[in-house]
Please model this.
Amino acid sequence: MREGATTTTDDEGGGRARRVSDDEASRSIATPRRKRAKTDARSEDDRGEEEDEEDSDDAVVHVMGGVGRITAKTMLDSSDAWRARDWNALRATFDRDGYLLIRGMLPREDVLAARAAALRALAEERPECFATDEEEEEEEEGDASWRDGGGGVLREGAADLGLLSRQHVAALPAIRAVTESDALFDLAEGVLQCERVMTTAYKWLRAVAGGEFTGVHTDKVFLGRGTSRLITTWIPFGAVKTEDGALLVAAGSHVSSDFERVRETYGTSTVGGDGTVSGWLTNDASEVPRILTRRDRGDGGDGEGTPPPPPVVDWRTTDFEPGDVCALGIETTHMSAANVSNVRGSGRARVRVSCDARWQPIGEAFPRDPRVRDWRGRGGVAVDE
Ligand SMILES: O=C(O)CCC(=O)C(=O)O
Model:
């Protein structure tokens, strides 16, 4: 995050996006390939013959993971377990993969209203960044997705929109109705298996322009000085395709032995003065396997000249629809794809609007990160205990 990340400082893993060049980006726009991917929390064996059918919907896409090109598989969809309130299945998936994707969790119209409120406020404060109605209509031609909460076409060159530091926007009723909705409280309480949770009053509301992205990080670096029982919910405001800068998650990185040294070193490090880039493991997702190898072996090999096989990083992403939510654990390595929606056609980008909300149980047994001042419970009530 960046710009004003926690409640006290300008910080956190990823707001002030770094930029990729149009040239790099144009070579990377998602080209789906059919490929096998798991679709639920069952073991490989249990899935058996059903898998062939499930495979037909899975794809691998090429993505700009910051400044580096990677491939990513489709996130597993836990929507059925959510609808059944099957907490055992949800927790099993979360514990194994470090994330949950729940489609249609929030009312679509509420999310689009929140998007409209955010963009209206931003356009008032940064009018120079936004395309005219005429320019926007040009972009919409032939692409229905632009209308999934339109109004988000940026002028060429627009950057650093600065929504993170505009907390009065995050506090608008239409936005809080989404970011502090009962469904999110229910999800956090169920995943964290506790009676009551609270959420940070500060919200990481982001408007990400063309070429921008959030680097590879874990939230522990930014929010890990309290309880480890803290989760994030990533809420796209509108349709966010991979090329718009969707969330990218390294599935299983919170438990994988390949990531163990990174968790122990980077994962316990302190964020530096800038509070953003200093909290990133790297700005290039394609570098992660090399970083994991270096950290595990010290010399990058076995000391006898044989390089170890590169660790596998199971990057996951998807095209998000309004109402979808992704929950993440505090030690799950993640980032956002670069927003490369500007590469085709006019050079104008679609702004990616999204919000990260943080959750932890209420009570003395769950210490708070001192960098985060204000917390709220259900109904917007301040939590002092
Ligand atoms: O949306 C982004 O760019 C990054 C999100 C993130 O890092 C988070 O939710 O913790």
User: Anything to note?
Assistant: Residues 1-16, 31-56 have pLDDT under 50 and may be disordered.
